[in-house]
Amino acid sequence: MYTINLAYELRDTPFKVNAVCPGFFATDFNNYRGTGTVQEGGAALPNTQ
User: Which residue ranges make up each domain of the chain?
Assistant: First the structure.
């Protein structure tokens, strides 16, 4: 819902709002129990410049 609200708030600007889930990667959020590194998760996302 946050993504929808943010996109609506920025509707008259040149910004695009996207939400992605890179998967279960080791972060502080999951006590580093993920199956890969943050760098691997980021590399899996498309470049949307």
Answer: 17-43
